[in-house]
Specification:
By secondary structure, this protein is an alpha+beta fold. The chain has one domain (about 20-105). The chain has helices at about 1-15, 30-40, 105, and strands spanning about 20-25, 45-50, 55-65, 75-80, 90-95. Strands 1-2-3-5-4 form a five-stranded mixed β-sheet, covered by helices on one side. The longest helix has 12 residues, at about 1-15. The N and C termini lie far apart (about 40 Å).
């Protein structure tokens, strides 16, 4: 019994490899490159400069699909500038209110 507990404690102290999220400058990539990175990595931080105030950096966490969103959020279409397009459609996790879905979805628990 003591041996099992000791092994369990040792295993809990073993550090697992951390999966850090990648960061990319969206304006240095094409729209298809951005989408390919999101598909291959699942999620990434994309950064770009504001068009109205170039000294202001903007960023967000974008995902390949809704499985990469936290509870209480859902993947919704958002747009980021890329080197070849002013607005490249990507998915971003956003908070939502389940009441907004209407009565049809309310009873599907």
């Amino acid at each position: 019994m003591k041996r099992t507990v000791l092994i369990a404690m040792c295993l809990s102290l073993v550090s697992l490899q951390a999966h850090a999220i990648s960061r990319y400058n969206s304006t240095s990539m094409t729209c298809s490159q951005v989408k390919a990175r999101l598909q291959s990595e699942g999620a990434a931080i994309l950064r770009w400069r504001s068009k109205s105030n170039p000294s202001l950096p903007l960023y967000g966490r974008f995902v390949a699909n809704g499985r990469y969103c936290e509870s209480g959020t859902r993947a919704q279409t958002s747009y980021v500038p890329t080197s070849d397009r002013k607005s490249c459609p990507v998915l971003e996790c956003r908070y939502y209110d389940p009441e907004d879905d209407g009565p049809i979805f309310r009873f599907r628990r």
